[in-house]
């Protein structure tokens, strides 16, 4: 394997880790002659899906937060910047407000519950949206689940 192919493979792997997007590689493996031809490239399609547009979500103020509200955020860290760059999004993380100033979020180690102030402190942007048809029972179930898997 040439150094060029190794670098291409490592870059592709890094992109997958950073973006969590699906990859559609147009050519499953390069030919021997293509390995030395730096002008030929692999066809890569990054797919971005969003359920936000047209979903009826509405932005809410901090003082109006209720259990079940979604907190969208970003930070200045490398992972956040990579996710935003490759997803064309202004946010890189979503957490769940579970009430009483507490936020549940997924991490590499599982789910952690932190204070809203901690979430604000490590975010350069944070906004909250509410799903309009979320029932109190659904919000309670979400909160209970977050505390169980914590």
UniProtKB/TrEMBL annotation:
InterPro entries: Papain-like_cys_pep_sf (IPR038765), Peptidase_C92 (IPR024453). PROSITE patterns: PROKAR_LIPOPROTEIN (PS51257). It comes from the Bacteria. Residues 1-22 form the signal peptide. Keywords: Signal. The keyword Signal applies. Gene3D superfamilies: endopeptidase domain like (from Nostoc punctiforme). Pfam families: Peptidase_C92. This is NlpC/P60 domain-containing protein. It comes from Flammeovirga aprica JL-4.
């Amino acid at each position: 394997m040439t150094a060029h192919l190794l670098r291409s493979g490592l870059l592709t792997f890094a992109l997958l880790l950073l973006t969590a997007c699906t990859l559609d590689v147009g050519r499953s493996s390069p030919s021997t002659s293509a390995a030395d031809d730096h002008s030929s490239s692999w066809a890569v399609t990054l797919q971005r899906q969003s359920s936000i547009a047209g979903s009826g979500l509405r932005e809410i103020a901090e003082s109006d937060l209720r259990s079940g509200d979604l907190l969208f955020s970003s930070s200045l860290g490398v992972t956040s910047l990579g996710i935003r760059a490759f997803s064309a999004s202004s946010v890189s993380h979503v957490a769940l407000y579970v009430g009483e100033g507490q936020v549940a979020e997924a991490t590499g180690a599982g789910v952690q519950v932190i204070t809203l102030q901690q979430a604000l402190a490590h975010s350069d942007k944070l906004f909250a949206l509410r799903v309009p048809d979320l029932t109190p029972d659904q919000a309670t179930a979400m909160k209970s689940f977050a505390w169980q898997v914590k």
